[in-house]
């Protein structure tokens, strides 16, 4: 019994020493740590500027946002071979398979192309060697003007959602620096996610934009938790309040990442829409940890310490 108490005491002392060292390190370097997200944010702006100058757009868009034809063929075929065979016959073809969730057996494959429906049908019937009908295939065509209009509406929805989120944050805290820190962190989270998504070669779909709408909510929850605890909880040091928020916030974020990752593993083989949504959320949650616990925490800590110093002088 005494040995157990001794071991527990040693563990407690060890945690306390580690916490003290961590607090000293953060007190000394928290402003310097702000350079890490600042450099990534600067790179993101430069990348998007260069990308826009080359392509006339900020992202790669799939046919749901550019217009084109989607064809599902209920047949087994090697995906890479189909893409190679059609690359010179259809405009910007993209091919992916549909697989059984349990057996992982291929059930069909999907072809997305900017070519119109008639051209796509003619090319595919010639390639496959049989007539395509409702029993062996399905066709969906979206016009370019309709897709562009839909894309603009979705972008406006994201901007409005971000704007109203910013208003709510300012109403909650009614202080410029903490509110701005939350908004900067959320903006950086979305921007960095968009850039990495682009760098990985993904094409953004309408479902992907919906995922960015969801990401706005995910981006501010831990920031609000941190800011609320540091500014409104009294009787504790700034470091202790930050550490308490960090443990709670990291638990929330890691739990969300694991849940989304598990869902991604399950749906990855048969749902391109859900795969894109979950991929964006995982990337965004990763950057959320960076921007909350380096960007926001540095600004909030500087603000809180300065506020304490001014109150002490008074």
TrEMBL record:
Alphabetical list of InterPro entries matching this protein: SecD/SecF_arch_bac (IPR022813), SecD_SecF_C (IPR048634), SecF_arc (IPR024921)
Top-level taxon in the UniProt lineage: Archaea
Residues in Protein export membrane protein SecD/SecF C-terminal domain copies: 133-304
Transmembrane segments: 32-52, 150-173, 180-201, 207-231, 252-274, 280-304
GO biological process: intracellular protein transmembrane transport; protein targeting
Keywords: Cell membrane, Membrane, Protein transport, Translocation, Transmembrane, Transmembrane helix, Transport
Membrane topology (UniProt): Multi-pass membrane protein
Name of protein: Protein-export membrane protein SecF
Protein species of origin: uncultured archaeon Rifle_16ft_4_minimus_37913
Designated gene of the protein: secF
